Amino acid sequence: MEILQEVKQLDDEYFAIVGKNKPVAKKTFYIDGGCSNNSQKDISRRKMVSVVCDEAGNVIYDISNEGGSNNIAELIALQYALLWATTHKLDDIKIITDSKNTIAWYNSTKINRKINDYARTSQIKKEIDLLEANIGKIEIEWRGREDNKAGHYIKNKYNL
Q1: 2-158 is classed in which CATH architecture?
Q2: Is 70 exceeded by the pLDDT of residue 55?
Q3: What is the pTM of this model?
Q4: Most buried residue, 4, 27, 60, 71, by CB count within 10 Å?
């Protein structure tokens, strides 16, 4: 329930910027994630940021979490894009990411155990699978960071 309250608050902030028009039938999301102190062996000393932007580059979500890695932050951004699409009952979405790893995890049925936070990543993947079931068509596309609006935001705001 906590995540739904967070989504509601972030939705209110997003719609205050772009207006209260009903979302279009097909929506494109740009997602990216980053992690400070990513080279730290102690995961608790890391801080992740996960960002979801719309087609115009407006930030829908800017979420900070402790621990993790760049890859986990990207996966969380994907989770939030799907959560937004589910909450707003979208049937056809496109997600643009600069992470080939996120695309591989999304298309996979399971997460490899040789990652730095298997339990957390596995839980996020399960939540993504549940959200995905509520959306008709999901297209996920790789583009380099220079073409990723969420990546530009993270670089400018967090220098990641």
Answers
A1: 2-Layer Sandwich (3.30)
A2: yes
A3: 0.84
A4: 60
